[in-house]
Write a structure and sequence with these properties.
Blueprint lengths: L4 E6 L2 H9 L8 E7 L2 E7 L1 H5 L8 H7 L4 E4 L4 H13 L5 E5 L3 E5 L10 H15 L3 E6 L2 H10 L11 H6 L10 H9 L5 H5 L3 H8 L1 H11 L16 E10 L2 H21 L2 E12 L4 E12 L2 H9 L11 E13 L17 H14 L7 E3 L9 E3 L19 E12 L9 E4 L2 E14 L11 E8 L4 E7 L9 E6 L2
Parallel strand pairs: 2-4
Antiparallel strand pairs: 1-6, 1-7, 2-3, 5-6, 8-11, 9-10, 9-11, 12-13, 14-15, 14-19, 15-16, 16-17, 17-18, 18-19
Helix pairs in contact: 6-11, 10-11, 12-13, 13-14
InterPro entries: DNA/RNA_pol_sf, SulA_CellDiv_inhibitor, UmuC
Keywords: DNA damage
Protein name: DNA polymerase Y family protein
Length: 498
Protein backbone atom coordinates (compact mmCIF):
# COMPACT_ATOMS: atom_id res chain seq x y z
CA UNK A 1 0.00 0.00 0.00
CA UNK A 2 1.36 3.41 -0.99
CA UNK A 3 1.73 5.87 1.85
CA UNK A 4 -0.33 9.06 1.69
CA UNK A 5 -0.41 11.91 4.17
CA UNK A 6 -2.60 14.90 4.82
CA UNK A 7 -1.36 18.06 6.55
CA UNK A 8 -3.92 20.46 8.03
CA UNK A 9 -2.96 24.05 8.81
CA UNK A 10 -5.05 26.16 11.17
CA UNK A 11 -4.15 29.71 10.14
CA UNK A 12 -5.68 31.33 13.24
CA UNK A 13 -5.87 28.40 15.65
CA UNK A 14 -5.90 30.23 19.01
CA UNK A 15 -8.10 33.14 17.98
CA UNK A 16 -10.57 30.88 16.15
CA UNK A 17 -10.80 28.63 19.21
CA UNK A 18 -11.50 31.62 21.44
CA UNK A 19 -14.07 33.06 19.02
CA UNK A 20 -15.95 29.74 19.00
CA UNK A 21 -16.29 29.91 22.79
CA UNK A 22 -17.06 33.65 22.73
CA UNK A 23 -19.07 34.39 19.55
CA UNK A 24 -19.11 38.14 20.28
CA UNK A 25 -15.40 38.27 19.30
CA UNK A 26 -16.05 37.32 15.68
CA UNK A 27 -16.86 40.93 14.71
CA UNK A 28 -14.07 42.49 16.78
CA UNK A 29 -10.35 42.75 15.90
CA UNK A 30 -8.51 41.11 18.80
CA UNK A 31 -5.10 39.67 19.64
CA UNK A 32 -3.60 37.39 22.27
CA UNK A 33 -0.52 38.70 24.06
CA UNK A 34 2.13 37.48 26.47
CA UNK A 35 4.95 39.38 28.27
CA UNK A 36 8.45 38.85 26.85
CA UNK A 37 11.18 40.53 28.91
CA UNK A 38 10.08 44.17 29.13
CA UNK A 39 7.60 44.09 26.26
CA UNK A 40 4.13 42.68 25.63
CA UNK A 41 4.21 40.70 22.37
CA UNK A 42 1.32 39.45 20.23
CA UNK A 43 1.28 35.65 20.09
CA UNK A 44 -1.86 35.31 17.93
CA UNK A 45 -3.99 37.72 15.92
CA UNK A 46 -7.49 37.24 14.57
CA UNK A 47 -8.16 37.45 10.84
CA UNK A 48 -9.89 40.82 11.24
CA UNK A 49 -6.98 42.17 13.30
CA UNK A 50 -4.48 41.10 10.62
CA UNK A 51 -6.51 42.85 7.92
CA UNK A 52 -6.22 46.09 9.90
CA UNK A 53 -2.47 45.80 10.56
CA UNK A 54 -1.90 43.77 13.76
CA UNK A 55 0.32 40.71 13.33
CA UNK A 56 1.92 37.96 15.40
CA UNK A 57 5.28 39.04 16.85
CA UNK A 58 4.37 42.73 16.93
CA UNK A 59 4.49 44.69 20.17
CA UNK A 60 1.02 45.24 21.60
CA UNK A 61 1.65 49.00 21.91
CA UNK A 62 2.45 49.27 18.19
CA UNK A 63 -0.62 47.21 17.33
CA UNK A 64 -2.89 49.50 19.38
CA UNK A 65 -1.49 52.47 17.49
CA UNK A 66 -2.29 50.79 14.15
CA UNK A 67 -5.75 49.44 15.13
CA UNK A 68 -7.80 51.87 17.18
CA UNK A 69 -10.47 49.38 18.35
CA UNK A 70 -8.06 46.51 18.99
CA UNK A 71 -9.05 44.19 21.87
CA UNK A 72 -6.08 42.74 23.77
CA UNK A 73 -6.49 39.43 25.64
CA UNK A 74 -3.89 37.59 27.69
CA UNK A 75 -2.72 34.32 26.13
CA UNK A 76 -3.07 31.03 28.03
CA UNK A 77 0.08 28.84 27.95
CA UNK A 78 -0.48 25.38 26.49
CA UNK A 79 -3.78 26.30 24.83
CA UNK A 80 -2.51 25.43 21.34
CA UNK A 81 -1.59 21.91 22.39
CA UNK A 82 -4.97 21.45 24.06
CA UNK A 83 -6.88 22.65 20.99
CA UNK A 84 -4.82 20.52 18.60
CA UNK A 85 -5.38 17.46 20.75
CA UNK A 86 -9.15 17.96 20.68
CA UNK A 87 -9.09 18.52 16.92
CA UNK A 88 -6.84 15.49 16.45
CA UNK A 89 -9.20 13.25 18.43
CA UNK A 90 -12.04 14.52 16.23
CA UNK A 91 -10.04 13.62 13.11
CA UNK A 92 -9.66 10.00 14.26
CA UNK A 93 -13.06 9.38 12.67
CA UNK A 94 -11.27 9.79 9.30
CA UNK A 95 -8.04 7.87 10.03
CA UNK A 96 -6.62 5.96 13.01
CA UNK A 97 -3.24 7.76 12.84
CA UNK A 98 -3.33 11.46 13.72
CA UNK A 99 -0.27 13.36 14.98
CA UNK A 100 -0.05 16.87 16.46
CA UNK A 101 2.12 19.32 14.52
CA UNK A 102 2.90 22.16 16.89
CA UNK A 103 2.09 24.90 16.94
CA UNK A 104 -0.76 25.16 14.45
CA UNK A 105 -1.39 21.94 12.56
CA UNK A 106 -2.12 18.23 12.33
CA UNK A 107 -0.62 15.49 10.18
CA UNK A 108 -2.78 12.51 9.22
CA UNK A 109 -1.62 9.20 7.78
CA UNK A 110 -4.52 8.58 5.37
CA UNK A 111 -3.15 5.47 3.65
CA UNK A 112 -6.07 3.29 2.61
CA UNK A 113 -8.73 5.66 3.98
CA UNK A 114 -9.66 8.02 1.12
CA UNK A 115 -11.66 5.46 -0.89
CA UNK A 116 -14.31 5.51 1.84
CA UNK A 117 -15.08 9.09 0.77
CA UNK A 118 -14.95 8.49 -3.01
CA UNK A 119 -11.31 9.47 -3.40
CA UNK A 120 -8.83 11.97 -2.04
CA UNK A 121 -10.63 15.04 -3.35
CA UNK A 122 -13.87 14.14 -1.59
CA UNK A 123 -11.90 13.13 1.51
CA UNK A 124 -10.05 16.46 1.73
CA UNK A 125 -13.20 18.46 0.98
CA UNK A 126 -15.15 16.62 3.68
CA UNK A 127 -12.60 17.39 6.40
CA UNK A 128 -11.81 20.99 5.47
CA UNK A 129 -15.45 22.04 5.03
CA UNK A 130 -16.42 20.57 8.39
CA UNK A 131 -13.52 22.35 10.13
CA UNK A 132 -14.46 25.63 8.49
CA UNK A 133 -18.10 25.14 9.40
CA UNK A 134 -17.01 24.64 13.02
CA UNK A 135 -15.25 28.02 12.88
CA UNK A 136 -11.60 27.17 12.09
CA UNK A 137 -9.82 28.90 9.19
CA UNK A 138 -8.04 25.82 7.83
CA UNK A 139 -6.15 24.63 4.77
CA UNK A 140 -5.06 21.09 3.91
CA UNK A 141 -2.96 19.23 1.36
CA UNK A 142 -2.30 15.59 0.46
CA UNK A 143 0.99 14.10 -0.74
CA UNK A 144 3.21 11.01 -0.53
CA UNK A 145 5.16 12.50 2.40
CA UNK A 146 4.19 14.47 5.48
CA UNK A 147 6.82 17.09 4.66
CA UNK A 148 5.46 17.84 1.19
CA UNK A 149 1.88 17.93 2.44
CA UNK A 150 2.95 20.37 5.17
CA UNK A 151 4.70 22.62 2.65
CA UNK A 152 1.89 22.65 0.10
CA UNK A 153 -0.77 23.37 2.74
CA UNK A 154 1.08 26.50 3.89
CA UNK A 155 2.93 27.89 0.87
CA UNK A 156 1.52 26.53 -2.40
CA UNK A 157 -1.13 28.11 -4.60
CA UNK A 158 -1.58 25.07 -6.85
CA UNK A 159 -3.84 22.06 -6.35
CA UNK A 160 -3.70 20.80 -2.73
CA UNK A 161 -3.53 17.17 -3.90
CA UNK A 162 -0.06 16.18 -5.10
CA UNK A 163 -0.06 13.05 -7.31
CA UNK A 164 2.04 10.05 -6.33
CA UNK A 165 5.75 10.71 -6.89
CA UNK A 166 5.19 14.41 -7.56
CA UNK A 167 6.74 15.84 -4.40
CA UNK A 168 9.96 17.10 -6.05
CA UNK A 169 8.03 19.11 -8.64
CA UNK A 170 5.59 20.44 -6.04
CA UNK A 171 8.41 21.64 -3.77
CA UNK A 172 10.63 23.17 -6.44
CA UNK A 173 8.99 26.62 -6.51
CA UNK A 174 8.32 26.89 -2.77
CA UNK A 175 10.54 28.94 -0.41
CA UNK A 176 13.03 27.20 1.93
CA UNK A 177 10.74 27.96 4.88
CA UNK A 178 8.46 25.20 3.53
CA UNK A 179 11.03 22.65 4.75
CA UNK A 180 10.29 23.39 8.46
CA UNK A 181 13.80 24.73 9.12
CA UNK A 182 15.08 26.71 12.10
CA UNK A 183 15.16 30.51 11.80
CA UNK A 184 18.98 30.74 11.75
CA UNK A 185 19.21 28.30 8.83
CA UNK A 186 16.58 30.25 6.88
CA UNK A 187 18.48 33.48 7.52
CA UNK A 188 21.70 31.91 6.21
CA UNK A 189 19.93 30.61 3.09
CA UNK A 190 18.48 34.04 2.43
CA UNK A 191 21.92 35.72 2.67
CA UNK A 192 23.37 33.21 0.19
CA UNK A 193 20.60 33.90 -2.31
CA UNK A 194 18.52 30.68 -2.07
CA UNK A 195 14.96 31.67 -2.94
CA UNK A 196 13.29 28.27 -3.55
CA UNK A 197 13.71 24.59 -2.72
CA UNK A 198 14.45 23.74 -6.34
CA UNK A 199 17.85 25.38 -6.00
CA UNK A 200 18.67 23.06 -3.09
CA UNK A 201 17.52 19.86 -4.78
CA UNK A 202 20.35 19.92 -7.34
CA UNK A 203 23.18 20.75 -4.93
CA UNK A 204 25.54 18.01 -3.65
CA UNK A 205 24.63 16.69 -0.20
CA UNK A 206 28.17 17.22 1.08
CA UNK A 207 27.99 20.95 0.28
CA UNK A 208 24.62 21.40 2.00
CA UNK A 209 25.79 19.47 5.06
CA UNK A 210 28.97 21.51 5.36
CA UNK A 211 27.22 24.88 5.06
CA UNK A 212 23.87 24.26 6.78
CA UNK A 213 24.25 21.17 8.94
CA UNK A 214 22.30 17.90 9.04
CA UNK A 215 18.87 19.42 9.69
CA UNK A 216 18.44 20.81 6.17
CA UNK A 217 19.39 17.50 4.55
CA UNK A 218 17.08 15.58 6.88
CA UNK A 219 14.09 17.81 6.17
CA UNK A 220 14.77 17.76 2.42
CA UNK A 221 15.09 13.97 2.34
CA UNK A 222 11.91 13.56 4.42
CA UNK A 223 9.94 15.86 2.13
CA UNK A 224 11.19 14.06 -1.01
CA UNK A 225 10.51 10.61 0.47
CA UNK A 226 14.12 9.44 0.69
CA UNK A 227 13.82 9.01 4.48
CA UNK A 228 10.69 7.94 6.32
CA UNK A 229 9.28 10.40 8.83
CA UNK A 230 7.92 8.73 11.97
CA UNK A 231 4.67 10.16 13.32
CA UNK A 232 3.69 9.91 16.97
CA UNK A 233 -0.07 9.26 16.93
CA UNK A 234 -2.37 10.76 19.52
CA UNK A 235 -3.86 7.35 20.29
CA UNK A 236 -1.95 4.20 19.24
CA UNK A 237 -4.02 2.53 16.51
CA UNK A 238 -5.72 -0.75 17.34
CA UNK A 239 -4.38 -3.56 15.10
CA UNK A 240 -7.84 -5.02 14.58
CA UNK A 241 -10.34 -2.32 13.63
CA UNK A 242 -12.95 -1.76 10.93
CA UNK A 243 -14.66 1.49 9.84
CA UNK A 244 -18.07 2.03 8.21
CA UNK A 245 -19.01 5.56 7.02
CA UNK A 246 -22.69 6.23 6.33
CA UNK A 247 -24.13 8.05 3.32
CA UNK A 248 -27.00 9.22 5.50
CA UNK A 249 -26.93 9.60 9.31
CA UNK A 250 -28.22 6.52 11.16
CA UNK A 251 -30.85 7.24 13.83
CA UNK A 252 -32.65 3.91 14.44
CA UNK A 253 -31.79 0.80 16.43
CA UNK A 254 -32.36 -1.32 13.32
CA UNK A 255 -29.83 0.73 11.36
CA UNK A 256 -27.29 0.48 14.18
CA UNK A 257 -27.76 -3.30 14.29
CA UNK A 258 -27.19 -3.59 10.52
CA UNK A 259 -24.00 -1.51 10.80
CA UNK A 260 -22.70 -3.71 13.64
CA UNK A 261 -23.40 -6.88 11.65
CA UNK A 262 -21.50 -5.55 8.62
CA UNK A 263 -18.51 -4.57 10.75
CA UNK A 264 -18.49 -7.92 12.57
CA UNK A 265 -18.64 -9.83 9.29
CA UNK A 266 -15.48 -8.15 7.99
CA UNK A 267 -13.63 -8.24 11.32
CA UNK A 268 -14.45 -11.89 12.13
CA UNK A 269 -13.42 -13.00 8.63
CA UNK A 270 -9.99 -11.45 9.21
CA UNK A 271 -9.69 -12.92 12.71
CA UNK A 272 -10.65 -16.37 11.47
CA UNK A 273 -8.06 -16.21 8.68
CA UNK A 274 -5.35 -15.32 11.22
CA UNK A 275 -6.42 -17.91 13.79
CA UNK A 276 -7.52 -15.28 16.30
CA UNK A 277 -10.56 -14.90 18.49
CA UNK A 278 -12.09 -11.70 19.88
CA UNK A 279 -12.05 -11.21 23.65
CA UNK A 280 -13.03 -7.53 23.83
CA UNK A 281 -14.65 -5.21 21.29
CA UNK A 282 -15.56 -1.51 21.38
CA UNK A 283 -18.05 0.11 19.00
CA UNK A 284 -17.40 3.86 18.58
CA UNK A 285 -20.23 5.85 17.02
CA UNK A 286 -19.32 9.31 15.68
CA UNK A 287 -22.41 11.50 15.59
CA UNK A 288 -23.30 14.41 13.31
CA UNK A 289 -23.09 16.85 16.24
CA UNK A 290 -19.38 16.01 16.68
CA UNK A 291 -19.82 13.88 19.79
CA UNK A 292 -18.88 10.24 20.17
CA UNK A 293 -20.80 7.47 21.96
CA UNK A 294 -19.60 3.93 22.40
CA UNK A 295 -20.57 0.49 23.63
CA UNK A 296 -18.42 -2.54 24.41
CA UNK A 297 -18.61 -6.28 24.91
CA UNK A 298 -16.29 -8.90 26.41
CA UNK A 299 -16.17 -12.66 25.95
CA UNK A 300 -14.96 -15.46 28.22
CA UNK A 301 -12.98 -17.07 25.42
CA UNK A 302 -11.86 -16.03 21.96
CA UNK A 303 -14.66 -15.98 19.39
CA UNK A 304 -15.05 -15.09 15.73
CA UNK A 305 -18.70 -16.12 15.53
CA UNK A 306 -20.66 -13.23 13.97
CA UNK A 307 -24.01 -14.48 15.29
CA UNK A 308 -22.76 -14.83 18.86
CA UNK A 309 -20.99 -11.46 18.95
CA UNK A 310 -24.00 -9.76 17.33
CA UNK A 311 -26.26 -11.08 20.11
CA UNK A 312 -23.93 -9.53 22.69
CA UNK A 313 -23.98 -6.16 20.91
CA UNK A 314 -27.78 -6.28 20.58
CA UNK A 315 -27.94 -6.06 24.37
CA UNK A 316 -25.99 -2.77 24.19
CA UNK A 317 -27.84 -1.03 21.34
CA UNK A 318 -30.40 0.50 23.70
CA UNK A 319 -27.56 2.36 25.46
CA UNK A 320 -26.44 4.09 22.23
CA UNK A 321 -27.98 7.54 21.77
CA UNK A 322 -27.83 8.50 18.05
CA UNK A 323 -29.22 12.05 18.60
CA UNK A 324 -29.23 13.73 15.14
CA UNK A 325 -27.65 10.64 13.62
CA UNK A 326 -24.44 8.61 13.43
CA UNK A 327 -22.22 9.26 10.41
CA UNK A 328 -19.36 6.85 11.13
CA UNK A 329 -19.08 3.51 12.95
CA UNK A 330 -15.69 2.21 14.12
CA UNK A 331 -15.40 -1.30 15.56
CA UNK A 332 -12.17 -1.97 17.46
CA UNK A 333 -10.89 -5.23 18.96
CA UNK A 334 -8.23 -4.17 21.49
CA UNK A 335 -7.99 -7.68 22.96
CA UNK A 336 -7.76 -10.87 20.91
CA UNK A 337 -6.22 -14.27 21.54
CA UNK A 338 -5.01 -17.25 19.55
CA UNK A 339 -7.62 -19.91 18.87
CA UNK A 340 -7.00 -23.59 18.23
CA UNK A 341 -8.95 -25.22 15.44
CA UNK A 342 -11.31 -27.74 17.01
CA UNK A 343 -12.43 -30.83 15.12
CA UNK A 344 -16.23 -30.86 15.03
CA UNK A 345 -18.04 -34.16 15.62
CA UNK A 346 -21.59 -34.96 14.59
CA UNK A 347 -22.04 -37.68 17.22
CA UNK A 348 -20.66 -35.90 20.33
CA UNK A 349 -21.00 -32.51 21.94
CA UNK A 350 -18.21 -30.59 23.66
CA UNK A 351 -18.61 -30.75 27.40
CA UNK A 352 -17.37 -28.81 30.36
CA UNK A 353 -15.22 -25.72 29.99
CA UNK A 354 -14.04 -26.78 26.53
CA UNK A 355 -17.51 -26.31 25.01
CA UNK A 356 -18.37 -23.07 23.24
CA UNK A 357 -21.99 -23.23 24.43
CA UNK A 358 -21.02 -22.50 28.04
CA UNK A 359 -18.77 -19.59 27.05
CA UNK A 360 -21.49 -18.09 24.84
CA UNK A 361 -24.08 -18.46 27.60
CA UNK A 362 -21.82 -16.68 30.09
CA UNK A 363 -21.20 -13.90 27.54
CA UNK A 364 -24.94 -13.32 27.17
CA UNK A 365 -25.48 -13.31 30.93
CA UNK A 366 -22.56 -10.91 31.37
CA UNK A 367 -24.12 -8.60 28.80
CA UNK A 368 -27.13 -8.23 31.11
CA UNK A 369 -25.61 -8.26 34.60
CA UNK A 370 -22.14 -6.93 33.75
CA UNK A 371 -18.82 -8.77 33.22
CA UNK A 372 -17.69 -8.08 36.80
CA UNK A 373 -20.60 -10.10 38.23
CA UNK A 374 -19.30 -13.47 36.95
CA UNK A 375 -16.08 -15.02 38.20
CA UNK A 376 -14.27 -18.34 37.98
CA UNK A 377 -11.87 -19.28 40.77
CA UNK A 378 -8.73 -21.40 40.88
CA UNK A 379 -6.87 -22.75 43.92
CA UNK A 380 -4.02 -20.75 45.43
CA UNK A 381 -1.34 -22.04 47.82
CA UNK A 382 -2.58 -20.46 51.08
CA UNK A 383 -4.04 -21.91 54.28
CA UNK A 384 -6.17 -18.89 55.13
CA UNK A 385 -9.60 -19.46 53.45
CA UNK A 386 -9.96 -15.96 51.98
CA UNK A 387 -6.54 -16.33 50.32
CA UNK A 388 -6.87 -19.94 49.14
CA UNK A 389 -8.48 -19.04 45.78
CA UNK A 390 -7.75 -16.54 43.03
CA UNK A 391 -9.82 -15.19 40.15
CA UNK A 392 -9.13 -16.85 36.78
CA UNK A 393 -8.39 -14.49 33.89
CA UNK A 394 -10.18 -16.68 31.35
CA UNK A 395 -12.53 -19.62 31.10
CA UNK A 396 -9.78 -21.94 29.90
CA UNK A 397 -7.04 -21.01 32.38
CA UNK A 398 -5.70 -24.07 34.21
CA UNK A 399 -4.52 -24.26 37.86
CA UNK A 400 -0.82 -23.58 38.36
CA UNK A 401 -0.69 -25.76 41.48
CA UNK A 402 -2.00 -29.08 42.77
CA UNK A 403 -3.00 -27.43 46.07
CA UNK A 404 -6.03 -29.35 47.44
CA UNK A 405 -9.37 -27.56 47.34
CA UNK A 406 -11.30 -27.93 50.64
CA UNK A 407 -15.07 -27.86 51.03
CA UNK A 408 -15.93 -24.23 51.60
CA UNK A 409 -19.18 -22.21 51.69
CA UNK A 410 -20.75 -21.09 48.43
CA UNK A 411 -20.42 -17.51 49.62
CA UNK A 412 -17.25 -16.68 51.50
CA UNK A 413 -17.00 -13.23 53.05
CA UNK A 414 -13.82 -11.39 52.10
CA UNK A 415 -13.64 -10.01 55.65
CA UNK A 416 -15.09 -12.14 58.53
CA UNK A 417 -17.77 -10.31 60.53
CA UNK A 418 -17.94 -10.50 64.36
CA UNK A 419 -20.88 -12.26 66.05
CA UNK A 420 -22.04 -12.80 69.63
CA UNK A 421 -22.03 -16.49 70.67
CA UNK A 422 -23.27 -18.58 73.61
CA UNK A 423 -21.77 -22.07 74.08
CA UNK A 424 -22.49 -24.65 76.84
CA UNK A 425 -18.81 -25.60 77.04
CA UNK A 426 -16.15 -23.07 75.95
CA UNK A 427 -14.52 -25.40 73.41
CA UNK A 428 -17.85 -26.73 72.07
CA UNK A 429 -19.76 -25.35 69.05
CA UNK A 430 -22.17 -22.49 69.83
CA UNK A 431 -25.78 -23.10 70.92
CA UNK A 432 -26.87 -19.74 69.55
CA UNK A 433 -25.31 -16.68 67.90
CA UNK A 434 -26.44 -13.15 67.20
CA UNK A 435 -25.63 -11.57 63.85
CA UNK A 436 -26.89 -8.12 62.84
CA UNK A 437 -29.27 -8.07 65.80
CA UNK A 438 -30.91 -11.38 64.79
CA UNK A 439 -30.79 -14.43 67.08
CA UNK A 440 -29.99 -17.80 65.45
CA UNK A 441 -30.63 -21.01 67.46
CA UNK A 442 -28.13 -23.70 66.45
CA UNK A 443 -29.64 -27.20 66.06
CA UNK A 444 -26.75 -28.96 64.31
CA UNK A 445 -23.02 -28.40 64.23
CA UNK A 446 -19.96 -30.03 62.69
CA UNK A 447 -16.36 -29.32 63.66
CA UNK A 448 -14.03 -28.00 64.70
CA UNK A 449 -11.63 -27.64 61.77
CA UNK A 450 -8.48 -25.89 62.94
CA UNK A 451 -6.70 -23.67 60.40
CA UNK A 452 -3.39 -22.17 61.44
CA UNK A 453 -2.27 -18.70 60.46
CA UNK A 454 0.55 -18.39 57.93
CA UNK A 455 3.22 -17.21 60.36
CA UNK A 456 5.62 -16.22 57.57
CA UNK A 457 3.08 -13.64 56.31
CA UNK A 458 1.60 -12.21 59.52
CA UNK A 459 1.13 -12.93 63.21
CA UNK A 460 -2.00 -13.77 65.17
CA UNK A 461 -4.25 -16.56 66.46
CA UNK A 462 -5.36 -19.73 64.74
CA UNK A 463 -9.01 -20.35 63.87
CA UNK A 464 -11.41 -23.15 64.89
CA UNK A 465 -14.18 -23.42 62.27
CA UNK A 466 -17.67 -24.93 62.71
CA UNK A 467 -20.37 -25.59 60.12
CA UNK A 468 -23.66 -24.87 61.94
CA UNK A 469 -27.34 -25.05 61.01
CA UNK A 470 -29.99 -22.89 62.71
CA UNK A 471 -33.63 -23.64 63.43
CA UNK A 472 -34.71 -22.13 60.09
CA UNK A 473 -32.55 -24.58 58.12
CA UNK A 474 -29.91 -22.00 57.17
CA UNK A 475 -26.26 -23.17 57.32
CA UNK A 476 -23.33 -20.94 58.29
CA UNK A 477 -19.57 -21.17 58.64
CA UNK A 478 -18.36 -19.65 61.91
CA UNK A 479 -15.06 -19.72 63.77
CA UNK A 480 -13.50 -18.88 67.12
CA UNK A 481 -10.25 -16.94 66.97
CA UNK A 482 -7.57 -18.56 69.15
CA UNK A 483 -7.93 -20.67 72.32
CA UNK A 484 -10.55 -20.10 74.99
CA UNK A 485 -8.53 -18.69 77.92
CA UNK A 486 -11.27 -18.20 80.47
CA UNK A 487 -12.39 -14.87 79.10
CA UNK A 488 -14.78 -14.05 76.29
CA UNK A 489 -13.48 -15.61 73.08
CA UNK A 490 -14.10 -13.68 69.86
CA UNK A 491 -16.28 -15.41 67.28
CA UNK A 492 -16.80 -14.54 63.60
CA UNK A 493 -19.13 -15.42 60.72
CA UNK A 494 -17.13 -16.23 57.58
CA UNK A 495 -19.56 -17.70 55.06
CA UNK A 496 -22.92 -19.12 53.99
CA UNK A 497 -23.63 -22.63 52.74
CA UNK A 498 -26.37 -23.26 50.17
Amino acid sequence: MEKRFMAIWFRHLLTDGLAIRRPELREVPFVLVTPVKNRVIITAASSLAEQQGAFTGMAAADARAAVAELLVINDTPGKATQLLRLLGLWCIRYTPVVAIDLSDGLILDISGCAHLWDGERGYLKEIVLKLRKAGFDSRAAIADTAGTAWAVARYATVSPIIPAGGQAQALASLPPAALRLAAEILERLKKLGFRNIGQLQHMPASVLRRRFGKELLLRLDQALGRIDEVLVPLVPPVPYAERLPCLEPIRTAVGIGIAIEKLLSVLCLRLQAEGKGLRKAILKCHRVDGRKVQAGITTNRGSHSVSHLLKLFELQIAKIEPALGIELFVLEAPKVEDMETVQEQLWAEAKGLAGTALAELLDRVAGKVGPNAIHRFLPAEHYWPERSVKVAVSLTEQPETSWPVQMRPIRLLSVPEPIEVMALVPDNPPKLFIYKHKRHMVVKADGPERIGREWWRDTGEHRDYYAVEDSEGQRYWVFRSGHYDGGDAQWYLHGYFA
